Amino acid sequence: RTTMKSLRFISAEAFVSNAEFARKSLGAVTHDLFPLLFKASYLLDQGEVIHDLVENWPLFDFNIGKLLGATLDYEEDLSHRTCSVCLESCLTGLRDYVLNQSSPYVKKLKVVDLTGIKDVEVQFCKCKKTMGRWARTQLLSKLCSDLLVYLQQAQCSPGTFEVSINVLIDLFVTEQNYELVVQALLKKCSCPLKICCVAFRSDNLTLQKFFYIIKLTDPSLLRKLEIVHNVHLEMEHLEMLFNCIHFPLLMSLTLPARTFNVRRFTATDEQTLTKIGEKMGEMMQLTELSMSFSILTGRIQKLLSPLKTPLKKLDVSNCSLNHADMAFLANSFHANHLEALDLSGHDIPELYPSTFFKLLSRCSSVLRSLTLEDCNIQDTHVNMLVLGLSPCQKLQEFKFIGNPLSSQALKHLFTFLCELPMLKNVEFPVPRDCYPIGITYPIDDASVCRFDHQKYEGVAEELNLILLQANRDDVKASTPLFGSYDAAVQETNNELGAYLIKSFKETLEKFTSSFNKIN
């Protein structure tokens, strides 16, 4: 689909396409044309022009999400382009804005918002190199530190020290960039570029380092907190975190796997869980909560009932929920507001079919994303599933990998899915009849790729044909066997892999040592 461009935008493209001419002529450009030229430069990957536009930015704010989003001059949203050349040019341009003493424009810039960038799998820029959230965190922290060193050593005009710009960013911290980010946050008061952390994600960090850096970020500004891989946060640590740090604006919370395990609970643990629920209700405005791979059997009400704001997103995948948990969800005030729901890893047809469909019915008017992976949905359940999904007219994404469905059942389901007007993304399982007879579900990692690939390709073609015949070529259907694309994991997979190998080696050494002692 070709996106229409206004004459203004076409003129802007022509202007920035000659980088040398554009850079020389910026001094004669009126203020109100800077946003237009920025988007045109970004579309054409004109890094040098982007740098100079930011270095001479004449406006009070620089919001990259709005600048790259849909505009009257050019409707295409470019905020999903995390082009390395363009983003590096933006950030170095920001540093040079502080240092530039010869700009013809008065320095008005007060707020830079980098939070509107969306990390996606496929990039359309010429360089094909991305700058993900981790790399943006790394580069901004380095530029802040370098800027301070330069200001201390160089002869700068007094005006340079008066520049104060709040830079809103989603930080992503791991062991590898931890020291650099800590240094930038510690020197925030002295630096003209002041890092303001709106969202924070941590992977591969010790608890001591996590607690230290989270205090430095100014938690009163945090809207989103993700504690994900290899941060060994358990329930007592979570209580400690909520007791010593307040998150008044926090709307989204992701906790690492195994934060909760009710099978090991004592009476004291029950009290701790109650306190955590109360803290989340008292001092946060949560609308998104992810607690996957914790064991929460029978405790969902205790955690969620104190919340004062309705949840719009809930991930309780592989949490061993029982009938009481599902009944609470179906009857709670959250149900009418859920836009994204993940119940993967629960045997829905066997354990609580009617309660699940009640929950689905209550959230149907707003539900945009539904994930039911490894839920033991079989051919005999498809008609019921179709009935349950029919009112979900706003559904954009449906993921149901790992369910034992035949090719025939998938074709029936796809014929129905064509009728959901907003649907954009479907993740479907390898049909059961593509696997050897006798395969058991859930399929283990060792067996997941042992299917008839030729037969699968044939079925996938038929399913895509069903979409095409219904004029639904806007729907992407795929089978990501090892999970959906995760930009954060993709960007830091080398560090994550090294950590896992190190952990495995240490475990092996402990086992060998214990074994040798026995002998």
From TrEMBL:
GO terms for cellular component: cytoplasm. Keywords: Leucine-rich repeat, Repeat. This is Leucine-rich repeat-containing protein 14B. Signal peptide: none annotated. The gene is Lrrc14b. Belongs to the PRAME family. LRRC14 subfamily.
